[in-house]
Q: What sequence folds into this?
């Protein structure tokens, strides 16, 4: 049980902190929340700065163009960038946090050379075409068909909840390549260019007013067979690799941010008199304990990942279950502090309160996560 | 940074679990429910195995280990529902003769609680009274913001406090029927302050809270296992009840509580920070109490009987939750910490 960082890790932290101190003051102002082209430009420019400074793909393997950093260094990176108020991964989320690592793990040498460098340089933005209108949490029920025609797959169907689809260059797309076998076995993982003929994007407006995700309609889209990652009909296994990345490390920086917001809430409550409310004050105290523990659980998970081959384990499900609810409780407490100010849709805490509602749904609902924990960790029998 | 247990720590945990399984199995546990006097032979055996002298330096006859190791050992004691003033004997092993070896049994008593309760009064050789914790002015009903929000608590934390010792037979007491059948209690009616004992009281309080939290963690983990074990075997409507999502979700939530508490307790053992200890106690108390209740629910009607062990975990969890800082005190302290 060692929570001290090694001299090398402390040195890495110090260099990163110095660099952030130098470059952050010169960044342009952040674009408006609803300006997606503006946000793409901003996020990819930041990615380019990371690339030029040697911080791009920190946790990716070196032979994939990354820095081969340890999970602990990645943790330090997320901690320091959040603490310094650096831009979040934003539109590069899918490319950097799961499509890229999946391509690095499962792609052929040619596929890696073609797709990975542009992600790292900030040239290409990826989106995720997993979910479908009739297959939400039941991902394996997907129906988008891919029919082989010479050197191409001809793909027809519809995807939904596709984040950043409006501004993406590529899509990690799950398709059904064999409808006649048990449903987990007939799926393939394809890389689809978003400008291919037959691709139509219809942005969806979230309850927060943002168009961060979209429906994507596919009408006889031709995708070269060479864009398939992994074997034909082996896409489910490839997908599980992707999802383990998504659940394991995607929220690390956010815990740091939540702890910062919690401190700001307490100070705001002290300033406006809400601090005298025993219930609110105790709620904030309890959340202090929750987020401190979630940070320690993150360190635990990272320690496990560092010694278990890099793919995060079931600790990710435990983390996601508690974190998603704690985040909602945090912003509900923010509304208590704000009083009538909680009706101001432009307030940062109000916008975050609205978006926090997606956390118990996205990346596997809390109910699905509980099934996973009960069956895979606790060994309870499969339900019907 | 590598937060995982070292090989030696895992060996210590496994060895403790084996020792307790052998010497305090279910039969012994149920016998203790009927006759809750402490087993002096077992106490000496634990002393001989280094249970109490764990953190004493080797030149003083101890094992020379640290707080994380003590946490692992007390987690196991919590799992096994081992009764007795374990935290007191662990903390006073270097301060009171005979405690390290398990020859003498001492209890700790918090003077500012009302009533002032004494665990295992019939089994103790000495009682150590500890004063100067979070005062009731800060933490009791209606308190909290007398001299500014959290001010009373902050002041109480800063107080150094003191401790004094008394032979067990010289303490005036009144009967008190304990909720926990495994932990007899007496109400102390006369707080003697004649023989001061030189102790770092703030540190003792912090460590007592952490080691109590470690026992709560062990209990919380054990009740997950009990619930899961029952859910796999108990059949209703022709299938194990564990196939039902409602049961699955109760069990999953129990594991989440236990693992969150584990992260907090282990980290506090490493950092020894007061705020982390406070948070760990809060989360471990909740995990132990809520998990015992959910375990009872999974057991259905049988869970409500004396025959099943679930009530023993719940009652002990309630008892421990009242000691070394309640939820209300912890939340107030942690809220105060946000402004620091």
A:
């Amino acid at each position: 049980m060692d929570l001290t960082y090694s001299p090398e890790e402390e040195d890495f932290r110090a260099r990163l902190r110095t660099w952030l101190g130098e470059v952050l003051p010169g960044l342009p102002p952040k674009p408006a929340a609803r300006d997606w082209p503006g946000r793409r430009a901003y996020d990819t420019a930041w990615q380019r700065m990371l690339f030029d400074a040697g911080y791009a793909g920190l946790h990716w393997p070196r032979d994939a163009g990354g820095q081969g950093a340890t999970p602990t260094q990645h943790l330090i990176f997320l901690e320091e960038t959040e603490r310094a108020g650096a831009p979040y991964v934003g539109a590069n989320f899918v490319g950097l946090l799961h499509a890229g690592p999946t391509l690095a793990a499962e792609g052929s040498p040619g596929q890696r050379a073609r797709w990975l460098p542009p992600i790292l340089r900030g040239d290409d933005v990826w989106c995720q075409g997993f979910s479908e209108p009739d297959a939400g949490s039941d991902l394996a029920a997907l129906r988008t068909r891919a029919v082989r025609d010479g050197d191409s797959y001809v793909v027809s169907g519809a995807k939904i909840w596709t984040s950043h689809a409006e501004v993406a260059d590529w899509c990690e797309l799950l398709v059904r390549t064999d409808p006649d076998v048990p449903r987990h076995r007939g799926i393939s993982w394809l890389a689809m260019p978003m400008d291919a003929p037959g691709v139509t994007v219809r942005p969806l407006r979230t309850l927060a007013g943002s168009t961060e995700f979209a429906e994507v309609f596919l009408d006889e889209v031709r995708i070269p067979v060479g864009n398939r990652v992994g074997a034909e009909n082996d896409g489910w296994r490839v997908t599980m690799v992707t999802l383990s990345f998504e659940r394991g490390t995607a929220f690390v920086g956010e815990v740091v941010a939540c702890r910062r917001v919690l401190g700001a809430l307490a100070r705001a409550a002290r300033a406006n008199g809400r601090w005298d409310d025993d219930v609110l004050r105790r709620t904030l105290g309890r959340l202090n304990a929750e987020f401190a523990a979630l940070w320690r659980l993150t360190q635990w998970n990272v320690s496990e990942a560092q010694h278990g081959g890099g793919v995060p384990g079931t600790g990710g499900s435990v983390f996601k279950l508690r974190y998603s609810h704690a985040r909602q409780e945090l912003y509900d407490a923010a509304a208590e502090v704000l009083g009538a100010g909680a009706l101001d849709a432009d307030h940062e805490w109000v916008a975050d309160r609205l978006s926090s509602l997606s956390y118990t749904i996205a990346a596997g609902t809390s109910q699905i996560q509980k099934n996973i924990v009960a069956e895979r960790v606790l060994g309870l029998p499969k339900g019907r | 940074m590598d937060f995982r247990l070292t090989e030696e720590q895992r060996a210590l945990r496994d060895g403790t679990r084996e020792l307790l399984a052998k010497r305090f199995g279910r039969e012994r546990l149920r016998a203790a429910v009927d006759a809750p006097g402490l087993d002096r032979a077992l106490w000496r055996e634990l002393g001989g195995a280094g249970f109490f002298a764990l953190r004493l330096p080797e030149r003083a006859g101890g094992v020379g280990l640290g707080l994380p190791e003590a946490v692992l050992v007390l987690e196991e004691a919590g799992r096994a529902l081992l009764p007795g003033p374990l935290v007191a004997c662990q903390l006073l092993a270097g301060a009171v003769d005979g405690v390290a070896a398990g020859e003498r049994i001492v209890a700790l008593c918090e003077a500012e609680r009302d009533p002032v309760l004494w665990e295992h009064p019939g089994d103790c050789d000495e009682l150590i009274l500890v004063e100067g914790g979070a005062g009731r002015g800060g933490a009791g009903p209606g308190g909290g913001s007398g001299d500014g929000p959290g001010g009373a608590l902050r002041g109480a934390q800063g107080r150094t406090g003191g401790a004094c010792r008394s032979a067990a037979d010289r303490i005036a007491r009144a009967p008190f029927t304990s909720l926990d059948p495994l932990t007899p209690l007496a109400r102390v009616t006369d707080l003697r302050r004649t023989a001061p004992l030189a102790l770092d009281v703030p540190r003792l309080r912090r460590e007592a809270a952490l080691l109590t939290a470690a026992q709560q963690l062990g209990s919380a983990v054990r009740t997950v296992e009990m619930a899961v074990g029952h859910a796999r075997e108990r059949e209703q409507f022709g299938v194990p009840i564990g196939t039902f999502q409602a049961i699955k979700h109760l069990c999953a939530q129990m594991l989440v509580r236990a693992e969150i508490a584990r992260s907090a307790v282990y980290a506090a053992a490493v950092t020894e920070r007061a705020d982390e200890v406070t948070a760990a106690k809060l989360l471990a108390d909740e995990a132990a109490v809520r998990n015992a209740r959910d375990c009872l629910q999974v057991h259905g009607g049988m869970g409500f009987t004396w025959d099943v062990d679930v009530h023993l975990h719940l009652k002990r969890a309630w008892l421990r939750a009242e000691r070394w800082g309640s939820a209300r005190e912890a939340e107030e302290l942690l809220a105060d910490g946000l402004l620091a």
